Amino acid sequence: GRVVHLADYRPTDFVLERVDLTFELDPEDTKIESRLIFHRREGADPQAPLVLDGDELTLSGLLFDQIEMDADRYTATASSLTIRDLPAAEPFEVTVTTIINPTANTKLMGLFRSNGIYCTQCEAEGFRRITYFPDRPDVLAVYTVNIIADKEANPLLLSNGNFLGGAGYGDGKHFAAWFDPHPKPSYLFALVAGDLGLVEDTFTTVSGREVALKIYVEHGKEPRAAYAMDALKRSMKWDEEVFGREYDLDIFMVVAVSDFNMGAMENKGLNIFNDKYVLADPETATDQDYAYIEAIIAHEYFHNWTGNRITCRDWFQLCLKEGLTVFRDHEFSADQRSRAVKRIAEVRHLRSEQFPEDSGPLAHPVRPTKYREINNFYTTTVYEKGSEVTRMIATLLGRDGFKKGMDLYFDRHDGDAATVEDFVKCFEDANSVDLAQFSLWYNQAGTPQVTVSSAYDEKASTFTLSLEQVVAATPGQPTKEPMVIPLSFSLLSDDGTVLTPSSVEGGKVAGDVLQLVERSQTFVFQGIASRPVLSLNRGFSAPITLHYPQSKDDLAHIARHDSDLFSRWQAVTDLALPALTAAARNAASGAAVESDDALADVVVAIAADESLEPAFRAQVLALSSEADIARELGSNNDPDAIHAGRQTVLASIAAHGEQTFKTLFDTLNAAGSAYSPDAAGAGRRALRNSALLYLTFVEKSPARAAEAFAKADNMTDLSQALSILAHQFPDAEETRAALASFETRFADNALVMDKWFQIQATIPGDMALDRVNALLANPHFKGENPNRVRSLIGSFAFANPTGFNRKDGAAYDLLASQVLDIDGRNPQLAARLLTAMRSWRLLEPMRADKARNALMRIESAETLSVDVRDIIERMLQ
Ligand code: B3K
Ligand code: ZN
Questions:
Q1: DSSP letters along 626-690, please?
Q2: Is residue 123 in contact with ligand 1, taking CB distance under 6 Å?
Q3: Where does 747-877 sit in CATH, by number?
Q4: Which of 300, 322, 357, 384 is catalytic?
Q5: Does domain 4-195 have CATH number 2.60.40.1730?
């Protein structure tokens, strides 16, 4: 539990040349023999000992150059192995033997078993749970892996790289050998053994090499891997075409397992996936599931270059691979689907997850400077804000400038363990620019607040824009420097055409992007013949909060005319937010909520506009979430009032647009046409299901949703109908019947049962806690399966604002008890669940008080993992 500081980085004293691992697999007694060849780094202290990392290990053998090592030359503890009196220059070999119990490994880090399958998770520091090793990302070596196991139980023996060969032994065992020619850090090591079904295909790379593609899933589930395979081939092609990156081994494997702490892992040549992000067919997966599978298959594949070929020098540089790779998967999905709708979804996610993190007790820079537990830094700030920072580089340098920088990065750093500075320098060198001030985005936490005012001078034909930026204090960073904020803009005339200024003074403007670089700055646009309507931060060019008081008319003008669909969506959102916050305030004070016809007009008109893609219209109809409204209100939040106010606004839009919603529901009825998971089909289903939701507000009856549930021929429609029933009519007989039929039909499908738990855990209101308690006792609930825990406890805490924030604080107590219980077996999962309460200080005082009590109960527990201790202490600071 020591704090690690970026400033303390130094290279290892010893260079690791090669690694030879032999695994003798056994469910409870797996023996690992690890032969490591080292030499002392030139210039290193000739007396320095070799210190290897361990975690819950016991040493059962140690050889030096194949001879048993003298006991006085080494010290072994559970967490380290220190070897002294080592040669000053010549290479030497250390052979370490450990014995571990994969079945007892409930942390799901290192080597563990999932449904009888042996598998590994080594990022960030799981390899040290297998054997003593220099377990840090800047130690790169070439690995040979031998796996020995019972043949009948484990016909499949997999590791990284290319298959060397295998053979049977007389005693029912067999072995396989793998060699990975690409030097890699230990966090990219993987091993899988067991009995799995296989889906095979091939991909021919741009230079004509044939790559074998293999996806391993549980027997019987092979047909559900077809979409993942398709997504993989599209990813490989896209990376060649867009980033010029070709795959570099003869084989690429994906293994799907059911017990996994995260989404997936990019191990070299052997990706291991949470099966949630591999398995899909129309009957069991929603359109959202398909979109996630496409994005995550792509993300892990793209890591082969951004993460594996070029890795991180230390874990502070995590965004170097994660932010960049998220940017790459976002661009991939944008190219495969609707770019605008994808961007809207990204921004929604950023605002609802990253903005709260960035303004709360867990705020940290995209590149942190210290950590106690690195697993707690796989955050939305490192991933999603990291991606936004990469996107801003692309916006500032333009498409060609960005490409030049990326090409230089791949060229210059292939095979390296690199830093954020290395990355930024490539863009500077390739474009002859200075990105020093821009780099503050990596180092300063907090979401910049940009306040804007504007004035038009008709006589002078000038439009004046004044901008001011402020970044609030965050933990450890009381004061901030001004950042480089690239703002894409458009000046719209009365008829919606774009006005082009003859010149601009006051700062740098390149094309349609202006750069705010000072604390406050005024831009004057010359030659503007009529009063323009300014559309600012188009496409969400900068991850900021914009305060620009625009009239309803101006927002409606943008919503009608901007050529950027994202900005049109943003304008509608800006129109709707004041209505939603007013409704929440009124609900809190008991005042009647007035309906806003102007807003309803705009929303319904967009819903009915056939010239717009259905997915976009569905995004508009979704309105801001309760969490968005809470953020807008700031502090002293009453989740019940926010919920009640939002329901009223939905009802008034529903009443206003009843005919439109009926037409949409009837005409978008896809029954009869075969289901296809493509973006267009998904968009139609999304729009139809939004129409269904609005209609239930008008009809105040579960009948239509119950009928939709009965007629649904795919999981998207089925689960949407079930959600509407459960969330709008929790006590109806139709809801009880639908939940029961869903349970009976899908009892054997864990991923679908996760949806059953999730839908019920997110039913709003005071009964939610009792429901969650009953579900915890349901025989389908499996506390050792992370997906199931997230679908019940995670959904309740993260996505049920009224139910979780009940006034008596009992739900906070439930979460506290669950966190403590889960912490005993799976600290990473426990720490992640706990972050659901990171915004507790923004609640109204009574609730905040109850939340603090629950958090203090966790803090005072006798034994806590480092993971949970780190989070709880930062949350209470
Ligand atoms: N790199 C992994 C995440 C590892 C998380 C370790 N706690 C998956 C990914 O980002 O692609
Ligand atoms: Zn990643």
A1: HHHHHHHH-SSB-HHHHHHHHHHHHHHHHHHTHHHHHHHHHHT--TTSPP--SHHHHHHHHHHHH
A2: yes
A3: 1.25.50.10
A4: 300
A5: yes
